[in-house]
Amino acid sequence: MKLKKNAPLENLLTLKIKDSACDLYIPDTIDDVVRFTSENESFHILGGGSNIIAGKLKKPVIYMSGIIGTSNTEDISENAVKTFMPGGISINRLLDYSIKNGLSGVEFMAGIPGTVGGALAGNAAPAEHTWDDVAGALYIVSKGAVSMLIPKYGYRKLINAPEDPFIIYGVDLILIKDTTENVRQRVMYYLSKRLRITEPSAGSLFKNPENDFAGKLLDEAGLKGFRVNDAALSSDHANIVVNKGSGCYEDFCELRDTAIKKVYELHKIKLETEVKFWDE
Ligand SMILES: Cc1cc2nc3c(=O)[nH]c(=O)nc-3n(C[C@H](O)[C@H](O)[C@H](O)COP(=O)(O)OP(=O)(O)OC[C@H]3O[C@@H](n4cnc5c(N)ncnc54)[C@H](O)[C@@H]3O)c2cc1C
């Protein structure tokens, strides 16, 4: 296990926050991960950093993208396989794997950044998709022990999550046998539906309230393109948080608080953040 004291996080967060820093633990093996969870009661888990806004952190951070491990696939029926996928693997690599091996089930993730573990922790997906149908079992590391969990998902959450903090070390995916060409075509289809964001971003700042859309509510409150210094809501989609250059943690907090206040004043709806804010 490597430790980088007071490491800048700017290059590990897709939003590129200038002033974010922490004591960063980089495990080499599953034993490192297990030991870390037995020695530290409270910590953050960093995957691809595509859904996090962080400042200067007191809690240690374990960086799961650095620990890759190997995938393996076994037949479970004539048409389906079970594939073990390490949590630190990027979604892009998962898609490459599924195309190369003609295995279908995760194409809906095309264009979403981050890691398998990060996606499974928060049920990250495009609208109307979920990991329920494809995630068979999660391998969890918590308090120095490894366990298995059959996940149940809700909107942007793991409903039956164990007590925090827990690390998703890997997952058994249930995938359907298909052809490389069919899987590739579906990946291209999902990619073609994505909004292209060219600035550093952490995706949607807020969750959609029930039966409504955060983007629409923000837009109606006049917040499309709204800025606090370099922290901004995109001028293409009001719910996408972007960094115009040197946005720092406090700027993003003020952006969040102002947006919540303005939407509440207009609609009497309190928006909840989808992006995780880390300040301790
Ligand atoms: C341009 C852009 C587009 C996006 N589009 C979408 C979209 O369409 N739909 C959507 O849902 N999201 C979207 N996102 C948000 C983000 O990509 C997803 O939430 C992604 O799955 C997060 O994965 P990550 O590895 O980057 O997690 P991180 O950002 O590193 O972490 C996110 C959360 O997951 C936890 N976590 C990370 N890894 C693990 C692990 N191994 N075990 C346990 N917990 C872990 C972290 O502690 C944190 O709480 C988008 C983001 C961007 C920048």
Index terms:
280 residues, six-stranded antiparallel beta sheet, 28% strand, Uridine Diphospho-n-acetylenolpyruvylglucosamine Reductase, domain 1, 6 helices, single chain, four-stranded mixed beta sheet, Uridine Diphospho-n-acetylenolpyruvylglucosamine Reductase, domain 3, binds flavin-adenine dinucleotide, alpha+beta
Description:
- With about 280 residues, the chain is an alpha+beta fold.
- It starts with a strand and ends with a strand.
- The protein has 6 helices and 18 strands.
- The model has no long low-confidence stretch (mean pLDDT about 95).
- The longest helix is centred in the C-terminal third of the chain and has 19 residues, at about 250-265.
- Helices cover about 25% and strands about 30% of the residues.
- The protein folds into 3 domains: about 1-65, Uridine Diphospho-n-acetylenolpyruvylglucosamine Reductase, domain 2 (2-Layer Sandwich), CATH 3.30.43.10; about 70-190, Uridine Diphospho-n-acetylenolpyruvylglucosamine Reductase, domain 3, CATH 3.30.465; about 200-280, Alpha-Beta Complex (Uridine Diphospho-n-acetylenolpyruvylglucosamine Reductase, domain 1), CATH 3.90.78.10.
- Strands 6, 7, 8, 9, 10 and 13 form a 6-stranded antiparallel β-sheet that branches. It has a 4-stranded mixed β-sheet with strand order 1-2-5-3, with no helix packed on it. The chain has a 4-stranded antiparallel β-sheet with strand order 14-17-16-15.
- α2 runs antiparallel to α4.
- The structure holds flavin-adenine dinucleotide.
- Flavin-adenine dinucleotide binds near residues 50, 122, 125 and 167.
- Flavin-adenine dinucleotide binds near residues 44, 47, 52 and 124.
